[in-house]
Design brief:
single chain, about 65% helix, 7-stranded mixed β-sheet, binds calcium ion, rod-shaped, 5 helices
Length: about 325
C-alpha cells in the first residue's frame, strides 16, 4: 500500500470518528436538554415493607428503588429523609458484590463506618440511616427487615403514577439548582466535545493540507514522468529515423562503390582503347609521312617530266621548222 493510500485511509477513519463524535454530541445535547426540562422528584412510601416488597410496590407503579450514584444526589436525599429507608442497592446475588437495581455496579458508597459488615452472613440489602453523617449513612441489613422505600422519578415522565398514588411523601429537587448543576455539567461536556471537535478539525485540516500537497507533488511527478516518457518516445523516433537514414546511406554507399568499380573498369578499358588508338595514329602518321615523301618525289618527277616535255615540245617545234624550210 502506498503512503498516499495510507494517508487516505487515516483521513477517512478520522472523518468517520469525527462524524460519530458529532452524532454523540448531538445525542448528549438532546439528552441533557430533555433532562434539564424535567424535574427530578423523590417519593417515600408510607408503609414499611421488606426490601423486595418495597421494590415490588415501586415497580408496580413503573419506577424502582432509588439509585444514588453521585455525591450531590446523596446529599439531596439525605437532606429530606427523616427515617431509615431502603435504597436500590443489594448484594443478594453474590455476597460483597453490590449492585444497583438496574444491575449497574456500585462505584461510590456512603457507608456508615464499619459497614457493610454482612452481620451473621444475613445482611444483603442496603438502608439509608439519616441519623448518621450525610456522606456516611448506608448500612446493610437483612432484606426481610421492614423499611419504607425511597424512589425517584421525573415529574413529567411516565412515572407520574407514583406521585398520583395517595400517601407517599414527594420531594422534588429544586429545578433551578438542578438546571444550574446540569447546565454546568453540560457546559463542561460541551466544552470537552467542542475541544475534541476542534482537535479533529485541526487533524482534518492538517491531513487535508498534507494530502493536497502530496497530491500536487504526485501530479508534478506524474507530469515530469509524462514529459520524460514523451522525450524518450521522441528520442526513440529520432533514433529510428537516424537508423533508417543510416541504412539508406549505407545502401547509397554500396551502390556508389559498385558504380566506382564499374567506372574504374570502364576507365581501364578506355585507357587500353586509347593506347591502341594512339598506336594506330602513330602508324597512320608514319604512313602519312611516307605518302608525303612519295608525293614530293612524284612532284619532283612530274616537274622533271614537264621540263622534259617542254624540251621535247621545243625539239618537235624545231624539227617542224627545219622540215618546212626550203632547201
Ligand atoms: Ca451481604
Ligand atoms: Ca450491617
Amino acid at each position: 500500500m502506498t503512503e498516499k493510500d495510507q494517508l487516505k485511509n487515516n483521513f477517512n477513519s478520522l472523518n468517520q470518528e469525527k462524524l460519530e463524535l458529532e452524532t454523540r454530541v448531538t445525542s448528549l445535547r438532546d439528552e441533557l436538554k430533555n433532562k434539564t426540562t424535567k424535574q427530578a422528584c423523590f417519593s417515600i412510601s408510607n408503609e414499611k415493607k421488606s426490601w423486595s416488597e418495597s421494590r415490588k410496590f415501586c415497580r408496580d407503579r413503573g419506577a424502582d428503588l432509588i439509585i444514588i450514584n453521585t455525591e450531590e444526589k446523596q446529599r439531596f436525599i439525605s437532606s429530606f429523609v427523616k427515617e431509615r429507608v431502603w435504597i436500590g442497592l443489594s448484594d443478594t446475588e453474590n455476597e460483597s458484590n453490590m449492585k444497583w437495581v438496574d444491575n449497574s455496579p456500585l462505584n461510590q458508597g456512603f457507608w456508615v463506618k464499619g459497614e457493610p459488615n454482612d452481620d451473621f452472613g444475613k445482611e444483603d440489602c442496603i438502608e439509608l440511616r439519616p441519623e448518621n453523617p450525610v456522606l456516611n449513612n448506608w448500612n446493610d441489613l437483612p432484606c426481610s427487615e421492614k423499611r419504607k422505600g425511597i424512589y425517584d422519578y421525573y415529574e413529567n415522565s411516565n412515572h407520574r403514577n407514583i406521585m398520583d398514588t395517595p400517601g407517599p411523601q414527594r420531594h422534588c429537587q429544586d429545578e433551578g439548582r438542578a438546571r444550574k448543576c446540569r447546565g454546568r455539567r453540560c457546559l463542561v461536556l460541551m466544552t470537552v466535545c467542542l475541544g475534541l471537535i476542534c482537535v479533529l478539525l485541526l487533524v482534518f485540516i492538517t491531513l487535508y493540507i498534507t494530502i493536497t500537497a502530496e497530491r500536487d507533488l504526485l501530479k508534478s511527478y506524474k507530469n515530469t514522468v509524462e514529459e520524460f516518457n514523451h522525450t524518450i518516445n521522441s528520442l526513440q523516433d529520432n533514433y529510428t529515423d537516424l537508423m533508417t537514414e543510416k541504412d539508406q546511406l549505407k545502401n547509397n554507399f554500396n551502390s556508389l562503390s559498385q558504380k566506382k568499380l564499374e567506372l574504374e573498369t570502364r576507365v581501364n578499358d578506355l585507357s587500353a582503347e586509347k593506347s591502341q588508338l594512339q598506336r594506330s595514329v602513330d602508324a597512320l602518321n608514319q604512313k602519312k609521312l611516307e605518302l608525303e615523301t612519295r608525293v614530293n618525289d612524284l612532284s619532283v618527277e612530274k616537274g622533271q617530266r614537264e621540263v622534259l616535255q617542254r624540251s621535247f615540245d621545243a625539239l618537235n617545234q624545231k624539227k617542224l621548222e627545219l622540215e618546212t624550210r626550203p632547201r
